[in-house]
Amino acid sequence: MTQFGVLKESIVELAQTAAFEAMENSSTTESTFDHLVVGVQNPDEFVGQGHLSTLLADQLGIVPAGATRVESGPSSGSSAFESAFAMVAAGMADLVLVVGVEKMSQVDRNTASTILAKMLSYENEIRYGATPAALAALMTRRYMHDYGLTRNELSLIPVKAHRNGAKNPLAHFQKEVSVEKVSTSRMVADPLRLYDCSATSDGAASLVIASDKAVRDHGLSDSAIKVLGVGHGTDYLAVQHRSSLTSMNATRVAAQNAFTMAGITSKEVDVCEIHDAFSILELVNMEDLGFVKRGKAINAVKDGITEVSGKKPINPSGGLKARGHPTGGTGVAQIRDIVQQLRGQAPKGLQVENPRIGLTHNIGGFGNNMVVALFSNG
Prior knowledge:
By secondary structure, the protein is α/β, with parallel strands linked by helices. It contains 14 helices and ten strands.
């Protein structure tokens, strides 16, 4: 994984850095890869670069491996991982390289917002001026109405994120913030303020997905992390057509599919990286994933359960809010961070004690294309 933030490197250079590190880490630098899967949301508009999977296959020196670009909005990285996992599980490949990448800083924030808004419904949302932040604000206001969440309680989410990010050397933001600073920061979409919203980031992360045979052949049985389950779910494109404004059914479907494949329940998960592009999402996701009862997520935060040292650590990396959110790179970064946790190699102060099972949750669109994955070191 590269540093996340506003970076000078090109999208290709970022992808190369992450990919070569993944190859070195897995002792596959000299190996023959069967396929490359690239998760990226919109490099055509962010940097004017299309056909990225073929370009990267060339630049990474893995021609003639197959190369595929996967896009499912901000869950593109997790969808790329899912595609690679499916290839290996189906016996179509033994060794697949996954790269998740985005470079968003070459355009100004307004242009980035316009590009990101294209994943919403034009008929029902875009033409009325809706943006992802505006929809998140609607969700926040309804959640506050239904469950009594206060402004200062909501601020505890970014405070925790930045406290963790301050210890993560690859995070976009490495400075702690206070509840007061979050609650009084610039308004973005009432009631969401600046510190409730993830930034536009540059960055890349990479994984090597291998069959059991490839793991044995490379002598990696002691360090390889097993994929227990993967689930994917969608919902109606427009928020107004969904059954709830305070729950995302696509998450519930994806989670149930992943838990069913893995043969475990939410109670057995030891550490999580979940999609907190807006602070309200961390609370909603915790409930949809089955960790807490509806409307009760803030209690887990206030009781310290979601801290690195808590019973259910959430986003020890700092999450999208502090680690950063280069959209196509986020899902792969989440998996990379969970792998670090399960190997006991997380940064100092962020390592969860003896985790056995980790979960990642990645949102595409505004809550309508979700991927949940489960991993184990056992």
